């Protein structure tokens, strides 16, 4: 497209908007709604011609519109410069292309696929661009550029023609999406453009392959693969290969790779240094000159600023892309940390995944696999070795699962060259489950892929040298069943490689372990040892699970096994392994029971997981050291009158069960179920569970203090999840803490002790706080981190006073509740005053509350406005000191904040100069109009207080009482006096408010999660109106529409119109009308509707045309919807089932004509079960009448829940009372043979189903047993 370019300082970014407009007099029965599209934005190529500059914008985009066969249509094109007018955009010009009979003759192509062939589509025409409203005949037509477009058309086959062409064998161009073949020679298989997110089997070359459709970055990805995938679920690397069965036992194949390495690894290291200001990087000004560059080799012999790739030696090829190595002691991103680069050399020997304050360097390793090429392996392409990294997977060739295939799967551990590799694993498994102890090896110890079945097996890889241990693996094979279009099952196999045993440390400290294997002679053999980090795991490969497995465990902090002997953790034959064991800490003389949880799978060859955990941890989330005691707490029903009860709380400690003493920052482990039997501690429901006794509690104190707090019952803490407690020091002062209970796993609960409240100074100068009636004070500097306050005395009230240098102490205030208050400070030498804003808010994870001190700003949650003509007022928070009154002259305003959050939040107001005892109190958090109180002689007070909401501020408007605006009659005064006794509500004249929205046409597209448009709803002449203030609290809501239609947007559907009205007789101005009238009430449990009406014309009906696939697409979309995103925040308000009063309910009769077409090939498998065949035969209907009867009721009054259930029951009754009418739309006689045929196929399929036969046999045996029992009972009665 050529465009004139104006150099006006703006940019140039053009796009085209296209719209197909069909003549309203078109003869097509189905209305075609306007179709539109737009191109992307492109920047033009600017060239100078004569004096002016001309730009050429190229889009090269293809658009397809549906054009009627008869009638006229035109394609409107509008070009817009989006960058013009400082980004607001400007229309450059517009043009149109006439389409239809007798206008512009389009070139015809055979199929939509031919549109991409440039040689066949060279029908380019130039169209001039003009401004809107400008005709070509106008004089002085200005040139706004021209548009170059190529227009062609192709015919869409109808369903009838499409079937006729298929039956006749005629070659057609089916526009179904795309074609796939195994090679250029074909045969080509077609795939529809509609691709659901699933795995579908497709038949190609008499074999099935899997087409897996996934969604990535908003685009669908279709992956064609075989029906077998191998996944490495362990933490080790493995070699995997496929080889023919004849070569498994071949000495040449097993040893050919031993002399030379066929797969190797190349590595490149990434280096970064930490700068306190700039962070991690390698281009900062402080980067040291002797440091390596961004990329280097492992020994720093070569480094470069840019990434470099080692060259491949002759005879090698790359087998993978560059990836980060995460298999060693590194963090989740592969980084290892150290003080300098010299300490970061691979292979790492210690875990360096956590950065310490002294670590300023980090490295990570990038690896890429390469493979040796040789003539021997090229002659046997199936035995190529693939390296599986931890967590990776590979897809097996699709022909390896065929019946005539003899390929076998071989697995062994991966080792670095020049180490001698392991032998390929051979299978060892036991046929019986847990109960059997007889080992039976397979006669053919390989995994033949065409004979694969669901099972678990053990693989043993023997070392080729004598200094290594055997390597054991657990191989699991499982399959999901997929169904073809003919309902033939196809299995999608997943082969997982796991460690046979995995240890999981669910303790708060690292653990050192040793795995022992018990021989037949009774001696223990050391198989594997290592360290498991907290919440980490260790995979065990060196132990033979067919033998008893023992464990030795040491925990950080001096914990060791109590009896020092290895404990039996796994015995597949006798199942005599322990469920818990005791550990002992010599330093504190404490004992701890550690529980064991096992996941053992379905067979004794399945991978086993063993977890170590304790029911409770204690975590100190504060820098101050704490000491703990496990105590027996006093029951609530026991009375007491001691002084300790007054000091420490309502419950005291009966006895000390365990003295934990001073603790470090490491969490402390507890097993409270072991305190059962000590004193009066009640028994647990089960000793194996962590459910606590109500008498077991935890007491806390600061370090070196003997004054412990009252015990917190663990059961009470579980119920409340947060309990406040005081931690006393040795001098009697205390800190207020919060004990929070969280779940760190399914079995372990963590008790976090954190400050209840921390203080943050944002004033800019140091502030001092002290407890009321106490002389000692604490200073909080503006440079200090958030820290708690130390309360000095338990016998004093918990109120605070605030002071700054040069100012006096403030009035006492409380921080016991959330909110914002303003604390006033007076100067020592003058009358100057400073206001400090104090905000108490919910804290972060480290505390329950935060108290933030900052300068008072002009914005506050309240504003007081004195609108009196001549009266000055005074105001304050209720129950304040005598000097806390604030004066406010007439016609002025002032901001207001609470002085103390601990007092009542009421505003006290009086006229300046009057008695303070006659002041009035108002709740300014409630939007209300407080009118003067009347008596016989007139009003008691002369002020009117109104509270309104303006954005986030509550505005208190204080005005004079104007008697001219009030009724003068005694009758009205008496009425007002009576209303005052019932908490007078604001009375003001109702003002009418009307909102009317009219839309000539409204379109709404429904797009599902794939994403694809499935429905299009169109409404014509929509009117929505809402009126309020109609008197007596009445509001009215109306909806009216002239037309409505819903279209099925699924491709190639035989019923494109899902819902539309049918009119008979005269045309009315509406097809659907809803009117609801509401009336406000003062009760929360009453909803009043004077009138509810829903009307459709008497001479109309609604066509409902359902094609079965749209049902399943809508059902799938509903399943994917997350309703929680539409809900607001959770509320603590109690739900109320209100009473609904309806004056008049008028619903007209609604008629439907339902047509339905079944499509069993597009039905999800197993949804309808046995009834699927019957629904296919009897489900096709045409114009089946369905009617909802008319409803007219007066004076309805019932609960909302009962009203909804009654309405649903009435609709169901209307539908079920028409069984003959429902069946009249079903062609039963025409479908009888088809129904019987489908039912016979279903019964035949069930007769061949193994699960159905087994269940049927169980039922038969059950019936026989029932008959025998009945006979015995009859005999006993005789």
UniProtKB/TrEMBL annotation:
Highest taxon listed in the record's lineage: Eukaryota
Domain called Vacuolar protein sorting-associated protein 13 VPS13 adaptor binding: residue spans: 381-898
One Gene Ontology biological process: protein targeting to vacuole
Species of origin: Kingdonia uniflora
Region (Disordered): 959-990
Entry protein name: Vacuolar protein sorting-associated protein 13 VPS13 adaptor binding domain-containing protein
Bias (Polar residues) ranges: 977-990
InterPro entries: VPS13 (IPR026847), VPS13_VAB (IPR009543)
Family, as annotated: Belongs to the VPS13 family.
One family name in Pfam for this protein: VPS13_VAB
């Amino acid at each position: 497209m050529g465009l004139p370019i104006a150099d006006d300082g703006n940019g140039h970014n053009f796009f085209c908007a296209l719209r197909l407009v069909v003549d309203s007099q078109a003869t097509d029965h189905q209305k075609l709604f306007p179709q539109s599209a737009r191109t992307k934005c492109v920047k033009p190529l600017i060239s100078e011609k004569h004096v002016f500059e001309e730009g050429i914008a190229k889009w090269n985009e293809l658009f397809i519109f549906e054009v009627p066969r008869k009638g006229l249509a035109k394609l409107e094109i509008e070009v817009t410069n989006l960058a013009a007018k400082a980004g607001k955009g400007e229309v450059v010009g517009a043009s149109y292309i006439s389409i239809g009979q007798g206008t512009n003759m389009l070139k015809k192509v055979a199929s939509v696929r031919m549109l991409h062939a440039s040689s066949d589509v060279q029908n380019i025409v130039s169209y001039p661009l003009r401004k809107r409203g400008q005709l070509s005949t106008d004089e002085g037509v200005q040139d706004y550029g021209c548009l170059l477009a190529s227009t062609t058309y192709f015919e869409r086959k109808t369903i009838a023609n499409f079937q006729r062409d298929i039956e006749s064998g005629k070659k057609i161009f089916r526009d179904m999406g795309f074609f796939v073949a195994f090679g250029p020679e074909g045969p080509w298989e077609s795939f529809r453009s509609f691709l659901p997110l699933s795995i579908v089997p497709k038949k190609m070359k008499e074999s099935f392959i899997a087409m897996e459709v996934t969604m990535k970055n908003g685009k669908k990805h279709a992956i064609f693969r075989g029906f077998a995938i191998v996944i490495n679920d362990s933490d080790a690397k493995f070699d995997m290969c496929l080889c023919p069965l004849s070569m498994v036992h071949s000495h040449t194949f097993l040893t050919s790779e031993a002399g030379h390495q066929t797969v190797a690894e190349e590595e490149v290291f990434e280096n970064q240094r930490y700068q306190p200001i700039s962070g991690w990087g390698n281009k900062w000004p402080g980067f040291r000159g002797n440091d390596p560059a961004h990329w280097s080799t492992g020994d720093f012999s070569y480094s470069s600023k840019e990434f470099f790739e080692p060259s491949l030696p002759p005879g090698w090829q790359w087998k993978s892309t560059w990836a980060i190595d995460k298999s060693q002691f590194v963090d989740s991103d592969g980084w290892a940390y150290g003080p300098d680069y010299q300490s970061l050399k691979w292979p790492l020997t210690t875990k360096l995944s956590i950065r310490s304050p002294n670590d300023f360097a980090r490295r990570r390793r990038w690896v890429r696999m390469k493979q040796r090429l040789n003539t021997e392996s090229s002659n046997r392409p199936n035995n190529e070795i693939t390296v599986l990294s931890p967590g990776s997977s590979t897809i097996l060739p699709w022909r390896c699962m065929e019946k005539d295939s003899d390929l076998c799967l071989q697995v062994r551990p991966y080792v670095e060259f020049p180490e001698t590799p392991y032998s390929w694993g051979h299978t060892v498994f036991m046929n019986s489950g847990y109960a059997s102890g007889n080992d039976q090896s397979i006669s053919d110890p390989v995994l033949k892929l065409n004979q694969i079945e669901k099972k678990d097996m053990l693989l043993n890889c023997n070392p080729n040298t004598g200094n290594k241990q055997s390597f054991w693996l657990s191989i699991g094979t499982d399959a999901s069943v997929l169904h073809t279009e003919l309902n033939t099952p196809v299995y999608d196999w997943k082969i997982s490689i796991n460690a046979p045993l995995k240890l999981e440390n669910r303790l708060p400290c690292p653990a050192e372990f040793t795995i022992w294997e018990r021989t037949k002679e009774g001696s223990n053999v050391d198989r594997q040892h290592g360290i498991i980090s907290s919440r980490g795991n260790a995979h065990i490969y060196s132990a033979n699970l067919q033998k008893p497995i023992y464990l030795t465990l040491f925990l950080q902090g001096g914990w060791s096994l109590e009896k020092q002997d290895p404990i039996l953790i796994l015995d597949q034959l006798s199942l005599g392994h322990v469920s818990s064991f005791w550990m002992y800490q010599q330093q504190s003389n404490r004992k701890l029971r550690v529980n064991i949880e096992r996941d053992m799978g379905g067979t004794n060859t399945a991978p086993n997981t063993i977890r170590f955990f304790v029911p409770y941890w204690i975590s100190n989330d504060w820098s101050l050291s704490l000491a703990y005691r496990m105590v027996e707490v006093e029951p609530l029903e026991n009375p007491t009158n001691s002084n300790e009860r007054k000091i420490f709380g309502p419950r005291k400690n009966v006895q000390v069960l365990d003295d934990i003493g001073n603790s470090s920052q490491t969490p402390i482990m507890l097993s409270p179920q072991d305190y059962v039997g000590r004193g009066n501690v009640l028994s647990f429901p089960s000793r194996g569970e962590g459910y606590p006794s109500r008498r077991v509690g935890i007491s806390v104190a600061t370090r070196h203090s003997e004054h412990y707090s009252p015990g917190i019952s663990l059961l009470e803490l579980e119920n409340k999840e947060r309990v406040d407690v005081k931690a006393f020091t040795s001098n009697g002062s205390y800190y207020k803490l919060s004990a929070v209970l969280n779940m760190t796993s399914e079995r372990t609960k963590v008790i976090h002790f954190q400050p209840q409240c921390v203080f943050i100074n944002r004033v800019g100068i140091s502030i001092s706080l002290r407890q009321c009636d106490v002389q000692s004070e604490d200073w909080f500097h503006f440079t200090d981190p958030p820290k708690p306050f130390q309360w000095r005395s338990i016998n004093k009230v918990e109120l605070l006073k605030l002071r700054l240098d040069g100012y006096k102490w403030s009035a006492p205030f409380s921080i016991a509740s959330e909110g914002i208050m303003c604390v006033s400070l007076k100067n020592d030498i003058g009358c100057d005053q400073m206001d400090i804003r104090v905000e108490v808010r919910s804290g972060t994870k480290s505390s329950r509350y935060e108290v933030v001190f900052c300068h008072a700003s002009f914005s506050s949650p309240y504003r007081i406005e004195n609108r009196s003509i001549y009266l000055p007022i005074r105001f304050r928070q209720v129950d304040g000191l005598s000097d806390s009154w604030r004066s406010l002259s007439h016609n002025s305003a002032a901001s207001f904040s609470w002085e103390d959050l601990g007092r009542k939040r009421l505003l006290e107001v009086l006229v300046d100069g009057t008695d303070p005892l006659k002041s009035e109190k108002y709740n300014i958090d409630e939007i209300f109009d407080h009118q003067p109180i009347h008596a016989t002689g007139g009003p008691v007070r002369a002020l009117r207080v109104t509270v309104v909401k303006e954005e986030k501020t509550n505005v208190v408007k204080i005005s004079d009482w104007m008697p001219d605006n009030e009724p003068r009659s005694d009758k009205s005064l008496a009425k007002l006096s009576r209303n005052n006794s019932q908490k007078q509500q604001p009375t003001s004249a109702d003002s009418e408010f009307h909102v009317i929205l009219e839309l000539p046409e409204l379109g709404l597209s429904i797009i599902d999660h794939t994403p694809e448009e499935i429905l299009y709803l169109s409404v014509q002449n929509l009117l929505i109106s809402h009126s309020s203030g109609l008197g007596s609290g009445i509001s009215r809501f109306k909806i009216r529409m002239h037309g409505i239609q819903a279209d099925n947007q699924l491709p190639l559907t035989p019923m494109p119109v899902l819902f539309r009205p049918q009119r008979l007789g005269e045309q009315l101005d509406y097809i659907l009308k809803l009117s609801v009238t509401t009336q406000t009430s003062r009760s929360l449990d009453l909803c009043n509707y004077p009138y509810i009406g829903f009307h459709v014309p008497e001479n109309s009906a609604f066509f409902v045309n359902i094609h079965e696939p749209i049902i399943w697409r809508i059902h799938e979309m509903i399943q994917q919807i997350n309703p929680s995103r539409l809900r607001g925040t959770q509320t603590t308000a109690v739900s109320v089932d209100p009473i609904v009063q309806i004056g008049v309910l008028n619903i007209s009769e609604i008629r439907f004509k339902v047509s339905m077409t079944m499509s069993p090939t597009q039905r999800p498998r197993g949804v309808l079960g046995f009834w699927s065949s019957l629904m296919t035969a009897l489900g096709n209907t045409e114009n089946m009448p369905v009617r909802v009867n008319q409803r007219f009721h007066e004076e309805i009054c019932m609960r909302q829940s009962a009203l909804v259930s009654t309405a649903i029951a009435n609709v169901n009754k209307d539908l079920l009372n028409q069984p003959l009418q429902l069946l009249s739309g079903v062609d039963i006689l025409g479908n009888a043979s088809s129904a019987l045929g489908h039912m016979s196929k279903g019964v035949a399929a069930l007769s061949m189903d193994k699960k159905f036969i087994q269940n049927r046999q169980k039922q038969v045996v059950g019936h026989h047993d029932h008959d025998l029992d009945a006979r015995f009972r009859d005999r006993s009665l005789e």
